[in-house]
């Protein structure tokens, strides 16, 4: 130990804590050279440039507060034990942090009540229910605490985490802290959290048997919330827990250059107890090495994360691990026990930690008969190797799930009570699609599918975690090349409307009930059960003004309905498709002409029609209003949810053009998608 300490002392001169070294850092009084470590360390003399972000900021500690954000797995079985142990460790540090769970999973309510912690449900998720990391970062960055933390749900923290934060907060104005964890097979046997020496025993066990995870992944990030933007690119929709987002975030923050990025792996003991990866490997039990070493092109969410990391920003091949952080906080013999070191060549040596810990993932290895020392391996991934699959390859073998996404694979995972919510769009309608998707996320509705009518929309939706597939089976007799740029009112738009029923029939023939929805409809609550309770073949919205019967001539609105999968309904839709293919009208009036008769010959009362053994019922317009019903859209700005609390949906039609729809949405607070940050902005009134 003595010689190791002496080696550190002679090879580097630390930037001391503020009480001992303020002059050295901030006033330019550098009579002593300051060596900023690594091998052959760089020397900063009197003429060294000053960085206003580095200096004595110790007064900020008086305003210190801390909030920890995490998105743990569902609190079930072993995961519950691991999650609760981690939460107890976070709440044991001093000063006590605020803890917030991101998203909503099984056991979150119970954990919040048990530990008196918080839940933030407004987190974007992919269609499989996994949080998206860009949304997590946004929520954490909105914290009112001085320092915000994102940490994996099973990572243990101790008081040295706060000591580390004290050092960093006191020396840097704006920062991002990253750290590699220690992996252990199990906690020390015979030790419980109630033992007075529990922390001491765990530390000794980790330091004796743990492996420092210096290669690749990170599990904790911390930064000050009153500083500049972390990075320049808009963060892609990385799937949390599936790799690459950690390296991307760190690399892009370093590249932006607005914050000091500090590696605290040595001074902050973050502990991870080994577990399997059943949630990301089809519920098959896989240990760490097995999971990440298997084919990256066969795991849907891992594939997406790799693709996003390579195609957004400047990240390549595992840049951005902890070894690339320009600053390193190291253990030393100074009074604070910690020294700030500046890496002259960050990331140059994967073996950097090997002489300071019992074991690392990147310990040097010399193969038999070789003169080459190898310190782990880096990922070799290129843009050309990771392109989005759009259609399944030809052949008898089905592709791995998600590569590409197909209608059948989505129905298998998403149908609820044999029912799917469906919409079909082209790339030109992507903004209104995302607004509707955020609406679905807000209501926690997951059983929806988007039929992409061109490959550009498929790729757009695919990389944003949406349940989409590329629809190619419905274009017979139609000019599909005109559809990508179809705008409202054009002949191309009319052709686009005639696609809708073709997609619906495809699902009905697969035995699935379909709720069709246009994406210019605002949903206030889930209407599915209420619609099913009508117990008819087709229940559909009316487009009639208030002074006309709901089933008045051509007053069926084909933008919202529930169609049951049965022979009469399938035949009716095939008849509508055939009728519409010969008509110059859009598809909507064809619904009425087929099922109610051109002059309303088969209308029943004021809210039904009959057709070939099936019953069509119009939905109550006061619960499912169109754009003219009750003059709802003329309600005082922002008051619709409170003035009309019984609404299931509200259709934004009976208005001219896309600009009119947009104006309505903006006036009433129904813009739920932030186009700049590509994140959902969830409403608070409903």
List the helices and strands and how they pair.
Layout: H1 2-11, H2 18-26, E1 34-36, E2 42-44, E3 66-70, H3 77-91, E4 98-102, H4 108-115, E5 118-120, H5 133-141, E6 147-151, E7 155-156, H6 160-171, E8 175-179, E9 182-184, H7 198-209, E10 211-212, E11 220-224, H8 245-256, E12 260-263, E13 271-273, H9 288-293, H10 300-311, E14 327-331, E15 338-342, E16 364-366, E17 373-375, H11 407-414, E18 419-425, H12 430-442, E19 448-452, H13 455-462, E20 468-470, H14 491-509, E21 513-517, E22 521-523, H15 528-532, E23 538-542, E24 556-563, H16 567-581, H17 587-595, E25 603-604, E26 608-611, E27 614-618, H18 640-643, E28 649-651, H19 657-667, E29 673-674, E30 679-680
Parallel strand pairs: 3-4, 3-6, 4-5, 8-12, 9-13, 12-14, 18-19, 18-21, 19-20, 23-27
Antiparallel strand pairs: 1-2, 6-11, 7-13, 8-11, 9-10, 14-15, 16-17, 21-24, 22-28, 23-24, 25-26, 26-27, 29-30
Helix pairs in contact: 14-16, 16-17
The number of helical runs is: 19
| Structure summary, number of beta strands | 30
Q: How would you classify the helix and strand content by structural class?
A: alpha/beta
Overall pLDDT level: 88
Q: Portion of residues in helices?
A: 25-40%
- Rg is 30 Å
Query: Sheet bearing the most strands, described?
Result: 9 strands, mixed
Which percent band covers the strand fraction? 15-25%
Q: Unreliable segments (pLDDT under 50, ≥5 consecutive)?
A: 1-48, 283-293
**How are the strands of the biggest sheet laid out side by side?**
5-4-3-6-11-8-12-14-15
Gap between N and C termini: 62 Å
The global form is elongated
């Amino acid at each position: 130990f003595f010689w190791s300490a002496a080696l550190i002392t002679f090879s580097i001169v630390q930037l001391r804590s503020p009480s001992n070294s303020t002059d050295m850092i901030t006033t330019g009084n550098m009579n002593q050279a300051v060596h900023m470590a690594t091998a052959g360390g760089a020397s900063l003399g009197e003429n060294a440039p000053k960085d206003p972000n580095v200096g004595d900021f110790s007064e900020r500690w008086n305003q210190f507060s801390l909030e920890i954000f995490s998105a743990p797995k569902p609190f079930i079985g072993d995961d519950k034990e691991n999650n609760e142990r981690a939460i107890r460790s976070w709440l044991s540090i001093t000063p006590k942090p605020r803890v917030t769970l991101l998203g909503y999973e099984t056991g979150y309510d119970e954990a919040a009540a048990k530990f008196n912690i918080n839940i933030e449900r407004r987190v974007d998720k992919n269609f499989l229910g996994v949080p998206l990391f860009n949304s997590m970062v946004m929520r954490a960055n909105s914290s009112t605490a001085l320092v915000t933390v994102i940490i994996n749900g099973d990572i243990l923290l101790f008081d040295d985490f706060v000591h580390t934060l004290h050092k960093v907060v006191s020396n840097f104005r704006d920062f991002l802290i990253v750290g590699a964890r220690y992996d252990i097979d199990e906690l020390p046997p015979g030790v419980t959290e109630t033992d007075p020496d529990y922390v001491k025993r765990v530390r000794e066990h980790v330091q004796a048997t743990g492996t420092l995870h210096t290669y690749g992944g990170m599990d904790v990030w911390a930064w000050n919330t009153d500083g500049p933007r972390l990075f320049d690119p808009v963060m892609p929709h990385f799937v949390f827990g599936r790799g690459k987002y950690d390296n991307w975030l760190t690399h892009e923050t370093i590249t932006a250059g607005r914050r000091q990025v500090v590696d605290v792996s040595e001074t902050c003991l973050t502990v991870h107890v080994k577990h399997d990866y059943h949630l990301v490997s089809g519920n098959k039990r896989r240990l760490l090495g097995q999971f990440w070493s298997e084919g990256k092109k066969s795991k849907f969410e891992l594939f997406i994360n790799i693709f996003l990391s390579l195609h957004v920003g400047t990240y390549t091949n595992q840049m951005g691990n902890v070894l690339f952080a320009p600053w390193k906080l190291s253990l030393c013999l100074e009074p604070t026990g910690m020294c700030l070191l500046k890496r002259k060549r960050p990331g140059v040596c994967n073996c950097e930690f090997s002489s300071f810990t019992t074991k690392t993932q990147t310990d040097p290895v010399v193969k038999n008969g070789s003169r080459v020392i190898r310190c782990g391996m880096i990922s070799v991934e290129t843009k050309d190797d990771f392109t989005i699959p759009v259609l399944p390859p030809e052949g008898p073998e089905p592709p791995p799930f998600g590569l590409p996404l197909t209608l059948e694979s989505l129905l298998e995972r998403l149908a609820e009570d044999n029912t799917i919510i469906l919409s079909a769009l082209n790339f030109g309608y992507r903004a209104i699609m995302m607004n509707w998707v955020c609406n679905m996320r807000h209501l926690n509705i997951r059983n929806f599918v988007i039929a992409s009518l061109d490959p550009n929309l498929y790729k757009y939706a695919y990389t944003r975690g949406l349940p989409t597939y590329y629809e190619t089976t419905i274009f017979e007799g139609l000019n599909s090349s005109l559809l990508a740029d179809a705008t409202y009112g054009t002949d191309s738009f009319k052709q686009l409307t005639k696609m809708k029923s073709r997609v619906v029939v495809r699902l009905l023939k697969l035995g699935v009930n379909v709720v069709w929805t246009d994406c210019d409809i605002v949903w206030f609550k889930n209407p599915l059960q209420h619609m099913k309770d009508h117990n008819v073949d087709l229940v559909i919205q009316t487009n009639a003004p208030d002074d006309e019967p709901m089933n008045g001539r051509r007053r069926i609105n084909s933008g919202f309905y529930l169609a049951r999968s049965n022979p009469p309904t399938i035949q009716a839709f095939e008849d509508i498709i055939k009728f519409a293919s010969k008509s110059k009208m859009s598809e909507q009036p064809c619904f009425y002409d087929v099922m109610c008769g051109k002059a309303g010959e088969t209308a029943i009362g004021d809210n039904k029609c009959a057709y070939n053994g099936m019953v069509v019922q119009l939905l109550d317009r006061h619960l499912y209003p169109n754009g003219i019903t009750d003059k709802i859209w003329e309600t005082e700005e922002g008051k619709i949810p409170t003035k009309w609390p019984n609404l299931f949906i509200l259709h934004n039609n009976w208005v001219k053009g896309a600009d009119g729809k947009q104006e309505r949405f903006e006036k009433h607070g129904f813009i739920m998608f932030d186009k700049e940050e590509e994140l959902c902005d969830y409403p608070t009134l409903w």
